[in-house]
Protein 1
Amino acid sequence: MLTLGINTKPKLSNETFGLLRDIIYARCGISFSEAKKYFLETRLVRRLEEMNLKSFEDYYYFLTYDSQREKEIINLFNSIVTNETSFFRDLPQLEAFRRGVVPKVIEDREKSGSKTLKMWSAACSTGEEPLTLGMMLLEDGLQIKGWNIDILASDISDNVLRPASAGVYEKYSLRNTPESYLKKYFQASGESYTATKKVRDLVRYRKINLMDPIEMRMVRGIDIIFCRNVLIYFDDNSKKKVIAHLYDSLNKGGYLFVGFSESLHNITRLFRPVSIERSVVYQKV
Ligand SMILES: C[S@@+](CC[C@H](N)C(=O)[O-])C[C@H]1O[C@@H](n2cnc3c(N)ncnc32)[C@H](O)[C@@H]1O
């Protein structure tokens, strides 16, 4: 007998899309336009399967009423965020950091009698960005000159923070890493590379949602923030909230790097855009 294939895959209706979109927006600031409905559907259908749920409506009810809903919100974040990153990403910005920003901050810190440099990679994904910053500072001999380097690396997703703290990477994420750094700061084993303890010790990892005022309030006294390639997921309203939180976390005169294709234009006037080594960096005035 010929059996006609019945497509039992759950379908996301426009109405439920709207409900799920509102939850996501309220909790992590990521805004999904109508055009992203298919993206959300394909990402979440896997989650439904894992949970043995038959429809997106059931999933919505789970997220709204179930006693385990807070745990599921985390799984939801993990399913929808994009974690693309690599070592030495957008080199011109890193040169601006190294040649322009770090020397200025060091000068200021020295005047205030402190020898601690506090940095924050505020959406660090699997950790390539904070380790890149750490390696650059080691390379410039900051620790040898008696500086204490403290890099906070945070993300909303545990799925990325776990591998980040393990510090093991495939060659692909190291594709832009200079050979001399590879030799000095990684131990190769087969196809994988483990960051040395010396670099890893500079970085501490924490789960922080950029949209959560309570979590954000815990971070203060930062000299340099990297918050790159995450603002693109937010609408202007969410961007304004995140930027206001980051502003409060920075020391006066501190610097904020956003992604190469991101800008604070029309988002805030609290920061002064400064052009350093052909990159725009935002300074807290
Ligand atoms: C594309 S990666 C950027 C990684 C790195 N900053 C870079 O530029 O290579 C974006 C990261 O932002 C994180 N993210 C998304 N929404 C967030 C939120 N509300 N709070 C904290 N992190 C968030 C994602 O989990 C993801 O790891």
Protein 2
Amino acid sequence: MRERFTTIFIVSNDDRDTKFYTVKTKHVERFRRYSVISLSALSAILVTSLILFFMISSAKNEIGSLNQKIYGLKNDLKLLDSLEIKKKVDNIENNINDINKYLNERGMFKSENSGGPEDAGGMTDVSIYQYYQSKTESILKTIKNVPIGYPHVGEFKSYFGYRANPFSGRGSEFHKGLDIKGNVGDPVKCTAGGTIEKAEYDGGYGKCIVINHGNGLKSVFGHLSEFNVKQGDKVNAGDLIGFVGSTGRSTGPHLHYEIRYKEESINPQYFLNIKNQ
Ligand SMILES: [Zn+2]
């Protein structure tokens, strides 16, 4: 077969530098083939790049939506947390309510508002907590002024209520307190915070201390040998106020312990033990 030739002109703009080449046609065809192959390769690369680009952007979108989901879940958790906190605050409110109710029933606590805040809806978190703080502080203060526990540990010699005359054994008399055996000089401790109303000799009570705890409550300690406090002193539960003796109308060393509410004697045994149910 005769060899074919192709002439290629290269024409410049100003017509001064026009050149022409004559090459074998098979070279031109080979060049065309290579061009086609190169173009296909380029297209393939472009397509792959595009696919990769779309994959990356869809992955990015997915990450974005996952982040949004996480944010939503975090908010849900926050909501759950605040629901949990609200539940606890409600429980605290119920407990405070019960304590107030109980103390009111015992006539020991006068509260202007025994429930929760009247308008919790308008209150911020801080003011609600502030409310409960002052409420619990007030309850603690009241409880600290309620005589609780033993002023002196010893065997009970005589109980609150009617009893036979301890001197003659005949006839009955009302015993206003609890007699606890002891030795002369044993320490006597006060059972709640208060102010010493009296620390002096008082007839049948002998050397006697009266403590005013507020809220209508008083505690009385009779037949002491010595005082460790004087009138007007402030005391806290557990303070040493005096010593066991046998002064006044007494048949032997013991502590006469009395609790008065609004000047009426009540059974001190109710106040000795407070146990969790
Ligand atoms: Zn007594």
